[in-house]
Amino acid sequence: MSAIIKEIQEALAVLSIPEKAEFFPKFFKTGKGEYGEGDLFLGVKVPDQRSVAKEYYSKISLQDLSILLSSKYHEHRLTALFMLISKFEKTKDQAVKEEVVKFYLDHLSYVNNWDLVDSTCYKILGRYAYENTKEELLRDLSDSEDMWHKRIAVVGTMHYVKKGSFELTKEFVTKNLKHPHDLMHKANGWLLREMGQKKETELISFLNKHYHEMPRTCLRYAIEKLDEEVRQDYLKGRI
After folding, report:
1. Which of 35, 39, 194, 234 is the most exposed place for a label (fewest CB within 10 A)?
2. Can you give the pTM of this predicted structure?
């Protein structure tokens, strides 16, 4: 193990102690756990993972990043992905971006829970696919039998939503409306809600076509930002 890996693990050590394990991953995702970044835990200040990532991303190699990403500790893997995002965002070298994307795809087996997916995939895969006309990359993931691959494809279209392009999002959401796992329903609803934030008419049009077949979780997330009267109409099936 390299010195840089040991240094990063020491910086994050307080997050890995057994007494704190029960707060992961919810605690760092929502910020509503019993302890927050900057708080004292067992007399030690809880580090900010993003700050650690910003400090080390330029110093760590992809080979060492692979070691950190394969750690049994969730906080090590999340910090590794934050560093990977920084590597992708900070470089202007297209070859380096390609290398980071290949690394991400080669390590998808470690991106296997909602926190890691939501924190990273649209910032790397979604942006790369949008900027380089690589929609097939996301389509291949969407067609995978692996639930996490499907979810990465759905969430990866967030960059398209942010740019006001909704067709790929609608395609993936429609394809996975009947998926048996509630995490897919949440992802679908989240993306639709964000689409409505960008352009409400697009969301209303999609809902009018599909809301009867949408799982309750997906529908609730999708209509969360609509006016209360409209929300109730969809929830009660009056439209």
Report:
1. 39
2. 0.84
